[in-house]
Structures are given as structure tokens and as C-alpha cells.
Amino acid sequence: MILADFFNVLDAALRVSTPLIFCAMAGIFSERSGIIDISLEGKLLASAFAAACVATVSGSPVLALSVAMLVSVCLSLLHGVACINYRGNQVVSGLAINILMSGLTVVLGIAWFHQGGQTPSLSPSARFMPIELPGAAAVADVPVLGPLYSGVISGHSVLVYAAFLAVLFTSWVVYRTRFGLRLRAVGENPQAVDTAGISVAWMRYRAIIICGALCGIGGTYLAIAQNAGFSREMSAGQGYIALAAMVFGNWRPGKALMACLLFGLLDAVAIRLQGVPMPIVGQVPVQLIQALPFVLTVVLLAGFFGRSIAPKAIGQPYSKDR
Amino acid sequence: MPQAPVIDLAIELRGVHKRFGDVHANRDVDLQIRKGSIHGIIGENGAGKSTLMSILYGFYKADAGEVLIDGQVVRLANSRAAIEAGIGMVHQHFMLVDTFSVLENVMLGAEQGMALAPSAAAAREQLQHLADNYQLNVDPDALVGELPVGEQQRTEILKALYRGARVLILDEPTGVLTPQEADQLFRILRALREQGVTILLITHKLREVMDVTDSVSVMRLGEMVAHRETAETSERELAELMVGGSVDLELNKSLPNTGEVLLEVKNLGVRDARGVQVCRQISFNIRAGEIVGVAGVSGNGQSELLEVLAGIEPLSAGSFNVLGQEVDSKYKINPKTLRSLGVNHVPEDRHRLGMVKPFSAAETSILGYHDDPVYRRGPLIDGDKVTAHCQALMNDFDVRPPDPSLRSAAFSGGNQQKLIIAREIEREPKLMLVGQPTRGVDIGAIALIHRRLLALRDAGVGILLVSVELDEILALSDRILVMCGGELVGEVPAGDADKAQLGLMMANAREVENV
């Protein structure tokens, strides 16, 4: 049943990739506008926590999603005030948000739910549950394509499909709209945008608000779709991985998607290989296998995607003074 | 009966004031510009020309005063308001996005709807229209970063016209152009004037003002000091108005008295950090007592050549022999070793290589020579000696203000440059490598720097002068080397050099061969 195993791994890969895809798209909006966003991680964690809290209290996944997005946008705005209005260091500001959220989610979690930083386990009605795509059962018996459709493509939470829509959305906005043209310009040469009569600050604010919203969906997925509640540090560096995927993907939505999927696939393979004896070497220590996706991602991405070129004005606060 | 205005004014400024902190950049400036004319605004660096134009373009807000366009008082709160009032600006440093096509750059900020495609189609059509009317041909799909500067500038002009500019401001437009490209620009400007466009030309080059403008205004220290009809003035009068006193623009240049060969460059090749060949097969020599000028449009390998000869970057092929020391790709010479041999370097980019901006002038004055025992007391630097040394240099080179404790960044460009040149000349070099000695330097300081360089040559020093200012090359050099595309495309004795011929050589080596 090698084929079935393979499809299982693909299925898992999609699930693991989803938060990465949201965060990578969020990062593209922010960084294309010239704002380094290392706080993807913190926003992911904060919105996961917010989603879990709201879902626990209200039982409504949609309300949880809305609040999570709101929380994440607020953090984006905090980053924006520091980086755009006060021209602070963007890495330091992002790092501050990450550290703050890492602590705050645990403190509030313990204070509110008394479960050592976790939120109570959610019932299915309070979560985004897997949905079956039309016809999945009917085609399940068709060789190869049937299991691919019913086992891999169908049967995910609606947010997984939303992640792919987010890539299409990002790609369309960045390359096909007036907003996208200005977004790309403001990350390359903000003075050109300013002299063209467009406000640099307002452009950047709009970009990071979209960034926050997308991160918020990613966090929601993490807490109330992929899992049934929040646990401390549950983002586990995925914000940083998404940031890396975005850089490897050269700040382009399609390539960043590929990088996210590749990482998700390797992660899924690693989970699958745990405890399975390998030919020649025998059973490999779990830690080594867990490290494998990270190592392979770096090697593969560096090999496949080549050198990436950042937006020229990235990380530089804009001011009119010469 | 209401009196009709005698002259139709496109722009009028009344009593414009602008301060930046302690600096009074514009002081009670009045200006009138006739519709459909080319009006020059001249002044030294820091005279307030660019600030004034930025106010007119809505980039800065004036503290006081009025701007009138077509006789109506307008409020230019931002660039958008200026664009809507029909003002377009071509900045000295182009406001272009290098990774965008010409079309995208032209559209940026003037798109018609949310989706790009319809705007792009409309812009393409409009660009064709402009190209036909004004001979402004640029490939709309070319990436701006890959275009030559002349075409980038045309893209900027197209941008302004696409937005319906009736007044076009050009800030130092010829600084980056060859003489031929500059002529072409002036042809475009005249064609625009025929169509009723009003043009404001900001420059410090008097010759251009005389060539192309109808009238001219002179600024000095933030004030508007004079208005003249171009036909009724002269270069000398304008220069004196700019400086506020008489200037001696003449250089008394004696015949060179050349001696032994100090520097011999053989088939030198240079690759930059990305591995791109930026200089190839360069051979020449410099003798004691002569100035060898390297002419070329900025970015044709002359900067890299200078940095290699100064020991800053390694060479990739060939070799050079400097004062008996052989340097090739295996042996990279250290700038410090070069200085101890008697080779001193005035770098092109003084802020990057010539000084440390937050350092005091005294510290800048010993940069590179800080471990000379003269400035030491035991293991420490002797501050009093350094200050006295800087004071002496400042007096000798008329650096203003003569205060060694002032931060280097606080001096004007000309005074920074005087201090750096003083520092290098004081070490009594045998060979001087000089890059862009008068970039961003005012007329008074230019004359002083030029005289000092000539005096150095008369004292038997060999000088390599790299400059993008052709006038400077012609004024100082005994021999002129022309670089284009990383190659040495010709050598002309200074006496025979003419600007048009040099310009052709700078523009394209092959054309010259075919002439």
C-alpha cells in the first residue's frame, strides 16, 4: 500500500502547510511594502490563543476567527506605530511582539482557564471541522485519482482551502491591481511613491493590516481547526519558517506557496518515518528525523530557488528629509 | 477698467520662507516665470534652489509666502496637489522604481481604476502619443533599472507629461549625461517649449544656462539675488552674482614639466563583487609633473579603476607598477603601504571613504595617518597636537568655519573636501589619485582646489584625475584618457581636445572608430 501511504503523507502535508501559507502571504504584504515582519510568529500565537478563548466561551468558530483576526491586526498596528510613525527598528519591534505574546498567552491562559496555559478542549461545533467535497465518496473507488480526490484533496477544514484562495488573492492583488503596483513600489523606492502623490505611511499601514488579517486566519486554523484548543507555544516557530519560505520564494506568492508546501511535505514525511526502521541504518533517532525537515528545507530551497532579492527599501524607515 | 496683466505668468512666488531647524533655506523669495519660457535658476550648493523647487512641488511646505499658478493662489499641501495643479518634476536622483517597466513607472500614482490592465492599455497609448509629439522615445516594456541614464531621465519627463504637467521642473538634469545626451535633452526641452510647456531648469552649470534658457534667476544663501534676461547677461556676471563677489575663474596653467614614470598600468582588468568585468585591458602611465584626466560618463569603470589603483579593491587581470612596486592579481597592495610609498588618494565618495561624518574635523584631518608618531603621546593620541595640525590645515586651505572641534558632517561639501585634500596634500605625495574633487563643491572652493592641484603638479607630483565633469578634465589635464564600457577608448593631449569629440568617445567607442 505504498500509494495509500503516499496519499496519507500528502494529506498531512496540506494540513501542516496551511498556517505556513497564511503567514507567508501575510509576510509578502508586509515586506513588499518595506516593513520587515518578524512578528508573524507572535501574531500567529496571539491569534491562536484569541481564537481558542473565543471559541471556548462563545462556541462560535466564526466569531473566534473574527476576533483572532482583530487581535492580529491590532498587533500589526502596534508594529506599524513603532516602525512607520516612530521609525523604530523593525526587527526589534517584531521581536518585542514575539516575546510579549509568548508570555502573555501563557499568563492569560493560566489566569482564565487554570489549565497550565492550555485552553479547554473544544467540542466539534466550536471548531472548523473537515468538510467533504462534493462527490468525494462517489469517486473514491476510481483507481489513483479517486483516492487522490477523496483522500487528499477532500476532507479538510474550510480554512485549508482558504489558504490556497489566499495565495490566489495575494497574487492577484500584488500583480494585477493598482494597490499592488503601489505596494511593490513603496517597498522598492518610497520616495518615488511619495513624489507620485501617494502617502507612503498610509500604503504601509494598509499593507500591514492585510498582513495582520491573514496571520489571524493562520492562528485560528492552528487552534480551532488543526487542534482542539490552544497549548502554550503552539506556533512553535512556524512564523519564522513561513518567513524563511517567503524569502526563499523571493517575495512571490506562487514560489512562497511552493516553499511552504515543500516544508509541509518534509514535515509530514518526518512524522511518518518516526519509529519506522530504515534500510541499512536501521531505526533512526526521533530527534534526527525531526530535524530532517529543517535541514532538507534549507538545502532544497537553496538549490531550487536560487538567490533571492529583497525589496530594495526593506527595513528602512521612510522620512522626507535628505 | 481692470488692467490686464502685462505678462502672462505661469508661476509666481511671493515672499516664500522655509526653515529647517537653524538653517534658513529660503528667505523671502520672490520669483516670476513667464508662460512658455525656459527659466534657469542657478546658485551654489546649499543656496536653496532644491528646497524652493520642493516647495513648488508640494514636497515641503513653506513656512510663509504664496504660490500662484496661472495667476491663482494655490495651496500645495502635498505632491498630489502640485501634480493636479499641472506641475511636474524631474528630480536630480530619479524617482523611479528600478524593478518596474517604463510603463509601470509612468502609471504609478496615475492609474485609472482598481485593476491594472485597463490603465496599462491607456498609458501605452498615451505614451505613443507623447513619443510622436516630442520625440520622447522609450520602450514602454523595458525595465527601468536596465536603461541608460538618458532614457531613465526621459522616463521621468514622460511621467510628468503623462500627468498633464504644464510646468516642468528639472533639478540638475545634465549631471549624469554625456554632452550629446545633454544636447538631446535640450532639444526635447525646446520642443516642449514650442508646445507651450513652461520649463524651470535648476543647475549650477553656467554654460547650460546661457545655452538654453530665456531668463535666469540667481540664488545665494537662501535668497533670490537677481533676475536677468539670458540675452542680456554673461557667464561672468552670473558667476559673480552666485558667489557674491568677484571670482577668478581663469586658471593660469603652465606647460607641464614631466619627469620619470611614476605609475605604469598594464592590461589591467577588474571584476566587481558579482564577478562582472568592469574594467578590461587598461594600459597607461603617469609621469611626474603631469595631470592625467580620466573622462567618462559615470559608471563606465573609472570609479573601479581608481579604487584598484588606491589599493582598496583587488584587480583580476594584468598588473600595475607604482613607484617601483609591482602589483598584480596575486599581490594585493594595502592602501597603507601605498601611502607609505607616497601615493595619496582623494576618494570619489568622501562620505563613504574620505571621512567619518560624526568625527570632529580634527579627527578627520588625521584619518589614515592616525598612527603617525607625530600625533602620539605614549600609546595615546595627543589631542592638542591633532587640533593644532587641523587648525594649520584649515588656515592653509581656507576651511570655514575654522573650528577643529566641529563635527565633520557639519561642514559644507566644499569645506569637507578642502579638508580632505589638505590632509592628503600635506603628506607630500609623489603620486596623487584624485576622484571627483569638486563634486558638490561651491564655485569658490572649486577654484581653490583646482589651483592647489595645479600647484602640486608644478611641484613635480603626478596626478590621476577622475572626474565626470568634462569642463574640469579639460581645465586641469595635460593628457585625457576616455573610458567607456570599462575600456580605455582613447587618449587625447589636452591641447587638442574638444568637447564634442570627447563626448562622442564617452558615448560609444565604436562610433568613433567609424567616424
Structure description:
The complex is a heterodimer of chains A (322) and B (515). Chain A is an all-alpha fold and 322 residues long. Chain A has one domain (2-305): ABC transporter involved in vitamin B12 uptake, BtuC. Chain A has 13 helices and two strands, in the order H-H-H-H-E-H-H-E-H-H-H-H-H-H-H. Chain A has a two-stranded antiparallel ribbon with strand order 1-2. In chain A, helix 1 runs antiparallel to helix 10 (200-226), helix 11 packs across helix 12 (253-273) and helix 12 (253-273) packs antiparallel against helix 13 (286-305). The N and C termini of chain A lie far apart (67 Å). The mean pLDDT of chain A is 91. In chain B, the strands form five sheets. Chain B has a six-stranded mixed β-sheet, with helices on both faces. In chain B, strands 16-19-20-13-21-22 form a six-stranded mixed β-sheet, sandwiched between helices. A four-stranded antiparallel β-sheet of chain B has the order 2-1-4-5, covered by helices on one side. With 515 residues, chain B is α/β, with parallel strands linked by helices. In chain B, a hairpin with a 2-residue loop joins strand 21 (479-484) and strand 22. Chain B has two domains: 9-243, Rossmann fold (3-Layer(aba) Sandwich); 261-364 and 429-514, Rossmann fold (3-Layer(aba) Sandwich), CATH 3.40.50. Chain B is globular and about 70 Å long. Residues 509-515 of chain B have low confidence and may be disordered. The longest helix of chain B is centred in the first third of the chain and has 19 residues, at 116-134.
